[in-house]
Design brief:
Structural class: mainly alpha
Number of strands: 0
Strand content: under 5%
Oligomer: single chain
């Protein structure tokens, strides 16, 4: 496969081959995102049902596994209603701005030794940067709806993401210090001997907590608090525009689980099973953990949520970063002394 640099040199065959590869990768990613989102929606219903001693969907397909497909078909046929006083262009654009970053993050997720769309040298930085763009779409949705509940939900989302993006980023820097790389492939390959969750247990706990808040999951679902804000920033959305928000939410849910798998749980490393199977099993285990959180913990207040981010998680993440840096410096110093 020719590289993009070769293609840019002007050779038609190389350009066509690289363009075809990117088209194929995009189609595969879109297919995986769609199927994974529908599966996670069904799985969340079943998990919540069993935790509450009920059955969940049972009638559409075996144990209701076709229910998500039926819901998708229903949303395709629903009327797209736009409030009379809404800012129509921004209202239309907001779901797309929320969904596209969730889709683009999969460019650098390593499902296996060679199962990655593009192994960027700054892959981790790219994922964190591109997923942060979704906050713009959420604020657009709340503002353009011209609805007080939607606006409150959007403003809460901005406050929440600003509060928790800092500890989330800092929690991952410990892994970056250990590997001296931002490449997702390199980080996973560095865990062939030992998973980083053993070396970074505090960083893992901080990441899981901050990531739960980043995707607006209970107990941090303040932006969508149904008892207070109806449905938050997407109150006024219906049909496929609402489906974009829904798919983006579950796509981001898998994304944060995939990042945790790649950085802390050894990625695709594991015995007997194919690498991609190990990666998916670990990722869906993290997703199940987050679903468990949702149906176990009560929702916190907005002041408690902001306070946890700034007063607890950020100091702990700095402590983890300092300790990791000191350990790496001491080990490097010992190695240098031994060589001399």
């Amino acid at each position: 496969m020719p590289s993009p640099e070769t293609a840019l040199s002007g050779e038609p065959e190389s350009l066509l081959a690289v363009f075809g590869w990117y088209i194929l990768a995009s189609v595969l990613v879109i297919g995986f995102v769609t199927v994974s989102a529908m599966f996670l929606i069904w799985w969340e219903r079943k998990v919540s049902a069993h935790m509450q001693s009920r059955l969940g969907p049972m009638r559409v397909g075996w144990h209701g596994w076709l229910q998500s497909i039926a819901d998708a078909l229903k949303l395709l046929q629903k009327e797209n209603i736009i409030p009379a006083r809404a800012d129509r262009p921004v209202f239309w654009m907001a779901p797309v701005v929320v969904f596209i970053p969730a889709f683009l993050a999969y460019v650098c997720i390593p499902f296996g030794p060679r199962l990655i769309a593009e192994d960027l040298t700054i892959g981790l930085l790219y994922i964190l940067a591109i997923t942060s763009v979704a906050i713009v779409g959420i604020f657009m949705a709340g503002w353009a709806s011209n609805n007080k509940y939607s606006s409150l939900g959007a403003m809460r989302t901005v406050a929440q993401m600003v509060s928790y993006e800092v500890p989330l980023l800092l929690s991952l820097l410990g892994v970056v210090i250990l590997t001296q790389s931002l490449s997702m492939q390199t980080i996973v390959e560095s865990q062939a001997g030992i998973w980083f969750i053993a070396l970074q247990p505090l960083g893992f706990l901080i990441y899981i907590t901050a990531a739960t808040a980043e995707v607006n999951r209970t107990p941090f679902d303040i932006p969508e608090a149904e008892s207070e804000l109806v449905a938050g920033y997407h109150t006024e959305y219906s049909g496929m525009k609402f489906a974009f928000f829904f798919v983006a939410e579950y796509t981001n849910l898998f994304t944060i689980a995939a990042i945790a798998t790649a950085l802390f749980l050894g990625g695709w490393h594991g015995p007997l099973l194919p690498p991609v199977v190990w990666f998916l099993l670990k990722s869906y285990f993290i997703v199940f953990l987050l679903m468990w959180f949702r149906w176990t913990f009560p929702r916190v207040r907005i002041d408690q949520m902001i306070g946890l981010g700034w007063k607890v998680l950020i100091p702990l993440s700095f402590l983890n970063l300092i300790l990791t840096s000191l350990v790496v410096l001491l080990l490097q110093g010992g190695s240098a002394g031994g060589v001399s």
